[in-house]
Amino acid sequence: MNADSILERGPLLVRDWLVSFLPEPARWLAGSLLAITAVIVAFASLFALLTLIERKVLARVQNRPGPNRVGIPLTKIRLFGLGQPLADGIKMLTKEDIVPRSADRVLHFLAPVALLAFAILTFAVIPFGRHLVPVELEAGVLYFFAAGAATELAVFMAGWASRNKYSLLAAMRALAQLISYELPLLLSVVPVVMLAGTLSTTGIVERQGGWTFGLLPQWHVFTPWGAAGFAIFFVAALAESNRSPFDLPEAESELIAGHLTEYSGFKYALFFMAEYFGMCALCGMGVTLFLGGWQAPLSFLAFIPSYIWFGAKLMTLLLAFMWVRATLPRLRIDQLTRLAWKFLVPLALVNLGVAAFWSLSADWTGAVRLTRWLIAAMLLAGPFVLLGRKLTAGLAPRIYRYAT
Amino acid sequence: MIASDISPLASRLSSGAHTRAVTDPFHGDLLEVSMGPHHPSTHGVFRMQVTLDGETIVKLKPVFGYLHRNHEKLGESTSYLGSMPYTDRLDYLNSMTNNWAYALAVEQLAGQPVPERAEYLRVILAELTRLLNHTCLAGFLLQDCGCSGTPLMYAFREREKILDLFEALSGSRMMCNFQRFGGCRTDASPEWLAAAKQLTDGYGAFLDEYERLITGNEILMARTQGVGALKPDLAISAGITGPMLRATGVDYDLRKVDGYGFYPRFEFRVPLGDHGDTYDRYMIRVLEMRESIKIIQQAFATLPAGPVMDPKAKLRGFRPKPGEAYGRIEGPRGEIGFYLVSDGTPNPYRYRVRPPSFVNLTLLEDLCLGHTVADAVIILGSIDIVLGEVDR
Amino acid sequence: MEPLEQLHARLLSAFPGAEISIVNNPGPAAQHSLLLPAALAREIAFFLRDDPALRLDYCSNVTGIDWLKAGHIEVVYHLYSMALKHGPVIIRLRTANRTDAVTLPSLTPVWRACEFQEREVFDLYGVVFDGHPDLRRILMWDEFKDHPMRKDYIEPDDYEWEPTPHGAIHDKAKAHYPAAVTPAEGAAKP
Amino acid sequence: MLGSGLLSGLAVTAKNLVGSFHDPARLTTVEYPEQQAKLPEAYRNFPFLVSENATDPMGTLRCVACQICEKECPPQCIYIEKSKDKKPDATGKLQLYPAIFDIDTSVCMSCQICVEVCPFEAIKMDQVFAIATTDRFDALLLKREQLAKPNAYYHTIHPTEAAEVDARLATERKAAAEKAAAAAAAKAAAPKPPAPPPAA
């Protein structure tokens, strides 16, 4: 599709039209502010929708209808429960904000704010569409992970400031999780940077344009190293965003609500929001790095604007997160760290080697291309099986005997 | 470097001294956490006073009694019949087996025979209760493991079907109050039997799906295998009964040992575990459910006609001769027994419940030491307690 | 399993001079029991547990019974064998009286199963078990004074007003309310 | 291989996610106030008193204030005071009646023992469960007037059981009437009302 079509440039045109009312020196600033506002508003509404969707998906998986009562107030119109997020928001706002007497009041207040701030910062470098990237950074990927890592610090802040034993345990878990999973997350991204040859997110997305044989998109996930990298990224992203099965800081059945135990009212809502923002950002980064960003999956579908493709991919990833959450039990903290250090990190390192091989064999052609695929897949499958066997050593379904 | 330097905790555990000063300049401070009585995973108002080294448990004291209502005193101040609805409220998930155990004890005390059809009905209802309880346990245990409600909801969906059956028969979902001394309160209609048969026949499919959902799950195996392992000797000494005992490999099922009711007429197997850990406790229950289905199907096939109540049985003014009796059955959680002493008056002189989950709790600390908080939660879940019964 | 009379005779030969007697159960259940002397109870319990013909390795039930008229408290243990799958053998211990001599040897060293159940008997009947590793109240709270399962236990007069229609409790509860407050007002202004 | 168990679990949840949209065996919930699950006939909640006649429920209570249920009730939630005088019951026989009959539903545990011990088929279990009130005390104490419900109501909630009860009562009454007639014929005197039933 034409990169300059009216639909594609639509958001930019609106912005330019709006800022054109302002004097020239203020335009750049107003444009940026407008972009920031747009991102925050878009993702805040996505957050509201996601809370509902998540509850609906969980409910449907569990054979329940899910929240379906709140519709338009004072009428009997239910709208599938679309009013639920609004009602939740009002409830959260009107709840009493309780701060424990012995809590560190400043940190207790700062933690949700910091968490939200860091989560929003990460949106800056994600290309939401062909022309829609809030800030064009040369080292966008680096910036993203630097800002993203700080979110766990806010979780630690919350746990520490609450002066609650459960919160403290949660804080410690959050730190352990941060240290363990930042590494596989970054290592899974290194091959992308290596093969794309750039740290800029827009650059990476542009590298994934085009179709092999006019059919298979050249997204990184459709290469052996990309698939493995994506899988590692997905697992690490689940852990980074404290989602089940890695929701240890908030382990409901063990630590009541972990770092959130002493939070109520709007602060709690802020945490909730920040966690969803973090999840969206990580999923957005996953889409950017591995799923071709805003690129259309098939060439004839390219007439649909790029930001819609990005949104669709983002939603798919988010739904996958929910699906995983609906299925899996939680890991224990030692198993969580073991999974990171003994499985994901080595696998990511192997993947780095595979990516190097891929890069070196880029000029193989013809039937040899297939061998290239096979070799790369083998190089990954072997370590995967071996490491997996090591990780699950001693664990197996058991055969039971019966009394005679 | 000797082992104790690497792992001071392990050496402390092996030497038996698992308590140490809360403040210790060399190993860091211990954290004392009071888990419960208001905690999402203590299955009621149960408290564990836990001392933690990091996340590892070095000391754990169960504290309970928050739901204590002196059930035994109540039993001594009401008539024999009047205690029957109170037994519903002991283990409120399994009122049918509680009723049966109490009825059995009173029947032994008074020498009261039970008609054949009533015994069959009791077997059917007890095995349905076992299905219900084990299904719930599987759901709750997985919830404790951190599943976001999915296994629990599937379990509750099936449990609801059994509860509907109970409601149609006894009038109440959980507080059935169904067994009487000398039989059952009402007879099951053919429609009820058909519905129950349909449910039982479809239950295997549910179990298959449930097992596909979770049993082979690597995370579940990692969380439960080797966690809270119990040795058979200790289990016997501590009076552990039910699936928790059989998970350690001890073959002791009252349905086989005592042969009460008409259990000797039915063919079923008793699954045994080899490790006695949480995974075995979970799996033994799943396998027991499959055996229960077989028992119920056999009972339906051979259910005789006839009355469900012994014509000589008395409801009002029931006064057994002086004497005592201890009647016990294999409840879903273990041996539930009632010990009754009669002095010839309408009220029992002594009314004692032998609650399985209370006795099974004896070893909670032994099972949890050296494991983490997260493990303590699932170990407690796999012991399968109901506070209505523990606290009485 | 061997008959109780035979077991009684064997116990007497193993513990010569011990006052072991059979307590007959006149009811249809006919679960007769052995009354053991408190002083030798633990040795006899070990014998019962370890004797190869008995192997009563499982103590199912521990019960206290307050015999108000006879003036003692009895603790009854129901023993079974998991190894040989027989039972029950019922043993009884009696305290000397109900007031000051209420100490019995704990059988927790023999069967771990007694740990919580003996604590319960201590809590509810006030029997002190000598040699119990952790004899604290278990169902009642630590500060609680009396032993509620005793037959002469007087319940505390701490009723709140409730309009329950039955007499006795209603009357007791009313004593806690100012005379001027009628039930209807009491309900309106609790 | 690592992950096979996870994948099979994911497959099950996916199947249920889809299944809940088209398979009624999976989506089993009912949306409560609008849809209500059908109560089984045996369902019991709190007791009510059966009266023979809807127009005059107080006058035709089957209850003769024998106080058996009061004595047998495990949580002791029934309070009865006998009447001083006698009124004719449905068959015209003079009977005592309850001057006060209270059931404290905050205490009642719906065990149905009162129904089982009643020799006169006078107390039965109701099926009304939506009884929330704003007053925890007096509103939950049901008086005689609130408890009395006609036999026709009993027939609507427990049809099978009520039909049995009616048949049994009819035969009993017939037998009693025949006995009375026989006694009257034997005595050939003015028929005196038979002895009152054995009140406890």
* Largest sheet report of chain B: 3 strands, antiparallel
Strand line-up across the major sheet of chain B: 1-2-3
Radius of gyration of chain C: 22 Å
The mean pLDDT of chain B is 85
Main sheet strand line-up of chain C = 1-2-5-4-3
**SSE string of chain C:** HEEHEEEEHEHH
Secondary-structure element pattern of chain B, one letter each: HHEEEHHHHHEEHHHHHEHEEEHHHH
**Strand pairing plus helix content of chain C: what structural class?**
alpha/beta
- Strand percentage of chain B lies at 5-15%
Describe the structure.
The complex is a heterotetramer of chains A (404), B (392), C (190) and D (200). Chain A is mainly α and 404 residues long. Chain A has helices at 6-19, 24-61, 84-94, 105-121, 140-161, 165-196, 201-207, 224-240, 252-255, 265-290, 306-327, 333-360, 368-391; strands at residues 211-212, 216-217, 401-402. Chain A has one domain. In chain A, 65% of the residues lie in helices and 1% in strands. In chain A, strands 1-2 form a two-stranded antiparallel sheet. Residues 1-18 of chain B have low confidence and may be disordered. The radius of gyration of chain B is 22 Å and the shape is globular. With 392 residues, chain B is α+β, with helices and mostly antiparallel strands. Chain B has 17 helices and nine strands. The longest helix of chain B is centred in the first third of the chain and has 29 residues, at 116-144. Helices cover 48% and strands 12% of the residues of chain B. In chain B, the strands form three sheets. A three-stranded antiparallel sheet of chain B has the order 1-2-3. In chain B, strands 7-8-9 form a three-stranded antiparallel sheet. In chain B, strands 4-5 form a two-stranded antiparallel sheet. Chain B folds into two domains: 2-63, no CATH class; 71-391, Cytochrome-c3 Hydrogenase, chain B. Chain C has 190 residues and is an alpha/beta fold. Chain C has five helices and seven strands. A five-stranded mixed sheet of chain C has the order 1-2-5-4-3. A two-stranded parallel sheet of chain C has the order 6-7. Chain C starts with a helix and ends with a helix. Mean pLDDT of chain C is 82; it is low at 185-190. In chain D, helix 5 runs antiparallel to helix 6. Chain D is an alpha+beta fold and 200 residues long. Chain D has helices at 4-22, 68-72, 113-117, 144-147, 151-157, 159-187; strands at 47-51, 78-82, 87-88, 94-95, 98-104, 123-125, 141-142, 148-150. In chain D, strands 6-1-8 form a three-stranded mixed sheet. In chain D, strands 2-5-7 form a three-stranded antiparallel sheet. A two-stranded antiparallel sheet of chain D has the order 3-4. Chain D has six helices and eight strands. At the A-B interface, helix 6, helix 9, helix 11, helix 12 and strand 3 of A face helix 6, helix 7, helix 9, strand 6 and helix 13 of B. Strand 3 (401-402) of chain A pairs antiparallel with strand 6 of chain B, so a sheet runs across the interface.
